[in-house]
Amino acid sequence: MERPLRHFSLHHVGETELRVVSDVDEGVIPIVQVEEEVIRGYAARACQVPRCVSLFILRDLQPLLRRLPPGTRLPTGDAASLMERPVVNVYSFEDPSTCHVFVSRESMQRAGYWDDVLAIRGLLAHEHAHPMVESGAVLASRRLTVKLTWQMPEPRAPEVPRGQWRARVDRFLAELVEKLCLSAPREIVANELAIRSSFDAALLHLDRRNIANAARSVEGRQALVGRLGDRVRSGDLPRDAAALLMLIGDMRGYLDMALEVAAFLRAGRDAAARELEAGLRASVFPALEPETLTAYEALRDGYVALAVDATLEQLVEWSAGLVQALAAALRSKALQLDCRVAAAA
Question: For 127, which of 71, 89, 139, 151 is 20 to 30 Å away at the CA?
Answer without folding.
Answer: 71
